From TrEMBL:
Protein family per UniProt: Belongs to the succinate dehydrogenase/fumarate reductase iron-sulfur protein family.
Domain 2Fe-2S ferredoxin-type: 4-95
Cofactor(s) this protein cannot do without: [4Fe-4S] cluster; [2Fe-2S] cluster; [3Fe-4S] cluster
Co-factor note (free text): Binds 1 [4Fe-4S] cluster.
Full protein name: Fumarate reductase iron-sulfur subunit
Superkingdom per UniProt: Bacteria
Keywords in alphabetical order: 2Fe-2S, 3Fe-4S, 4Fe-4S, Iron, Iron-sulfur, Metal-binding, Oxidoreductase, Tricarboxylic acid cycle
PROSITE patterns to which the protein is assigned, alphabetical: 2FE2S_FER_2, 4FE4S_FER_1, 4FE4S_FER_2
Length: 239
């Protein structure tokens, strides 16, 4: 496909600065280009002040997560022309920052809020959930597929509860951290007190409303909602 123009409607805002707005850019996009490729072209050729996060360009790091036409997705693996075709305003791709996290500027959010409930002592290498083992490569006796979560924040943004105060004035820890808590609990029969407090305490699973939006938004096939329902069943068995 030859380069064809795509219109991007991009959220702009500098915290503490001028009020938020949308800027419109028209970019000639190759057929194979992703939304992230288009953002790079805008920043290099049109507006060098555009702020967004990215790193790997192949869906391994999760840093380019944003809302694309109202859906939480990774910009690096979302084809630009596909996004334009599926838009409610055909030919125009609307880009916004993730919800439920503090805004740093334009399309970039502060991920420190995402990690605030994660414990530095939790395991960093975990067996994968939700996907069958692949066939063993030649000459390999066994291998373990490691966890699929890339900590992109899409599930947090998609969750209608995360980032809002609950009825008792506390805030929901969010699907990503509770899914991680469930995985940590599965490492052995003895559940550390801190994990139980987070899972079943004032920030825990009790606030989940079962919208399942977190699982639908995950780009890597992790099912946070299933992990949260596991925690809920664990609590109910104890009561």
């Amino acid at each position: 496909m030859p380069d064809t123009p795509v219109t991007f409607k991009v959220f702009r805002c500098a915290p503490g600065g001028e009020a938020s707005r949308f800027d419109t850019f028209e970019v000639a996009v190759p057929g194979h280009a992703s939304v992230l490729d288009a953002l790079d072209a805008i920043r290099v050729d049109i507006d060098p002040t555009l702020v967004y996060r990215h790193s790997c360009h192949h869906s391994s790091c999760g840093t380019c997560a944003m809302r694309i036409n109202g859906r939480d997705r990774l910009a690096c693996i979302t084809p630009a022309h596909e996004a334009a075709a599926e838009s409610s305003v055909q030919g125009t791709v609307t880009l916004e920052p993730l919800r439920g996290l503090p805004l740093q500027g334009d399309l970039m959010v502060d991920m420190r809020a995402f990690y605030r409930h994660f414990d530095e002592h939790w395991s960093t290498l975990r067996p994968s959930e939700g996907r069958a083992q692949a066939a063993l490569p030649a000459g390999i006796e066994r291998f373990t597929r490691l966890e699929n979560c890339i900590e992109c924040g899409c599930c947090v943004s998609a969750c209608p509860v995360t980032g809002t105060e609950t009825g008792d004035g506390t805030s929901f820890a969010g699907p990503a951290v509770l899914a991680a808590v469930r995985r940590e609990m599965g490492r052995g029969p003895d559940v550390p007190e801190g994990l139980a407090a987070l899972a079943f305490g004032p920030h825990g699973e009790q606030h989940c409303q079962r919208h399942l939006a977190c699982s639908r938004a995950c780009p890597n096939g992790v099912y946070p909602a299933r992990a949260i329902m596991d925690l809920r069943r664990m609590r109910e068995r104890k009561e």
